[in-house]
Amino acid sequence: MRAAVHTAANQPMRIEELADPRPKAGEVAIDVRSCGACHTDLHVLKGELPFPTPTVLGHEVAGVIAEVGPGVTELAVGDPVVTSFIMPCGQCAQCARGNEEICQRFFEFNRGKGRLYDDETRLFRPDGEPVWMYSMGGLAERCVTPATSVYRVPEGVELADVASVGCSTMTAYGALRHAADLHVGDTVAVVAAGGVGSALIQLASVFGASMIIAVDISDEKLAGAEELGATHLVNSAEVDAPAAIRELTGGRGVDVAFEALGAVPTFNVARDSVVEGGQVVVVGIAARGTTGEFDLATIARRKLQIKGSYGAKPRRDMPVLLDLVARGLLRPQDAISRRYPFDQVQEAYDALKRGEIIGRAVVDIG
């Protein structure tokens, strides 16, 4: 098969021929149709998140089951599916507690070493050299992943529309449902209207937020946010964003502010935009070593809540999200602004690096 292989920080990925990966017990192989271009991949490409090389990135996969491993009974060859970027083992202490989004084995084996849960990769160059996997390694014609991260796409839903459900949408849902536990009528600010921010805006509307304030430095991205459901727009390059948010909310601030980029300036906006007793939910993945500041006395006096959110609980939440898509209440396809053929995969990430992507870019592979 062909795969986009990352070999060194700040070097372009190159498409190589790798051996077709085969699933082991509890796993499936997927013929990839499309894969979303995520900012977390970009952190790895830039060397901001340490990860072994050579590796295949890509963790927003839509495709068709090509092969099932021993013990897999709930999926069959030919099923149209999407994957969750978190691949819960279902066995560790965190999974047992219902905290699949922080599965210990996922972080130890995959995020730590680029391997699946037998401590081995499924990807190899023709000479047998191992190639590591970021999640399932979806920037390839075929990938292998535990069946716990694979979900059948409902009838009537276009496979080409739903790759991003597995990361940006799932990340947004986890932040809204589990970290913030957003209630109908709450006011929210979404700071950074990129891929995850776009999903936060869409889902905040589904959740019944009364005011959804999108904050970004790009008027083009803000226009896209408005189309997805933002009720108010703030360009933080032109105005004092926290002051503007307080003015929009009658001087009080929002109930929940979501930081959706992983950067100090956006964290500062979110931190300074919430009402007393409000929640600041950090969703964006920052480069390793990035630090935000806050005044401890202010946190205590204003009873602020600062929370982190890594994603949703895949086995509980992915079926919910796909049902919302099937019923037309959630339209991830509306956030897709660019599609790239597989041969132009590096161009997709170059455009993401330049800040040109509105919503989400998708790489069409199969």
UniProtKB/TrEMBL annotation:
One of its GO terms (molecular function) is oxidoreductase activity. InterPro entries: ADH-like_C, ADH-like_N, ADH_Zn_CS, ER, GroES-like_sf, NAD(P)-bd_dom_sf. Residues 8-363 form the Enoyl reductase (ER) domain. Keywords: Metal-binding, Oxidoreductase, Zinc. Its cofactor is Zn(2+). Belongs to the zinc-containing alcohol dehydrogenase family. This is Alcohol dehydrogenase catalytic domain-containing protein. It comes from Saccharopolyspora hirsuta.
